[in-house]
Recover the amino acids of this structure.
């Protein structure tokens, strides 16, 4: 028996990275999973897939309506769709700033909003947003991305406050730097920046998408039935504190 048997889940950003890993994990855990993204991957393993730009509220509503029509309910929403962006604020292109906010923050809001009427009617639901450690603390060059993910965290907490009485839980996962196509597009396979960022994780490695998916599965399940309003770092110790290499002098590696 899977921990998500009988649950119907919608995962945005389902074509790659954390989203695709979440689809695969949820299917393995017994859920009926519907994915959405700009385009479907060749090997999508969920029950159904819808092409959708999360910035398009009408299209998002069409997807939510289709899930209810096909499966009768929406138990879980995972908002994994997102983009990387950043740069020094004084030279930041305003259109790029807006694109990042529109996808990461407004897209998340629309994904949640379209599922809420069904969840309210059911009297239950689990909303899992994918935020970031960069929504918890600053990071050089991350101005627009950090702002969008900080917004996702507070939006999630507000959803937990507003809809908890209706039996709906909302939690944010805050990944550290995860070895996904999006990160590779920013840092490349090998670079001094990649090494420096890797070493800020106390486990001295980047995360894997499936490690985030396992946490999403927990938050979606009855095992987390009393967990709501949490911004949970899944970051290999990235936000635990500062590290200057002192540990290597007294811990045998």
């Amino acid at each position: 028996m899977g921990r998500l048997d009988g649950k119907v889940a919608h995962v945005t950003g389902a074509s790659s990275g954390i989203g695709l890993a979440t689809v695969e994990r949820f299917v393995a855990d017994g859920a009926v999973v519907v994915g959405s993204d700009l385009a479907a991957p060749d090997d999508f393993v969920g029950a159904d897939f819808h092409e959708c730009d999360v910035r398009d509220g009408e299209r998002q509503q069409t997807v939510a309506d289709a899930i209810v029509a096909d499966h009768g309910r929406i138990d879980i929403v995972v908002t994994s769709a997102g983009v990387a962006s950043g740069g020094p604020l004084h030279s930041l292109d305003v259109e790029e700033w807006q694109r990042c906010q529109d996808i990461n923050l407004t897209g998340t809001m629309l994904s949640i909003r379209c599922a809420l009427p069904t969840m309210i009617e059911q009297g239950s639901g689990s909303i899992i947003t994918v935020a970031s450690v960069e929504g918890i603390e600053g990071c050089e060059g991350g101005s627009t991305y950090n702002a969008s993910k900080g917004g996702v965290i507070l939006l999630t907490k507000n959803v937990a406050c507003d809809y908890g009485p209706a039996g709906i839980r909302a939690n944010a996962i805050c990944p550290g730097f995860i070895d996904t196509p999006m990160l590779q597009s920013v840092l490349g396979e090998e670079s001094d920046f990649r090494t420096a960022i890797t070493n800020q994780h106390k486990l001295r490695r980047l995360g894997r998408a499936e490690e985030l998916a396992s946490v999403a599965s927990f938050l979606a399940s009855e095992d987390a039935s009393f967990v709501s309003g949490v911004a949970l770092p899944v970051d290999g110790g990235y936000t635990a504190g500062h590290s200057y290499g002192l540990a290597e002098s007294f811990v045998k590696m």
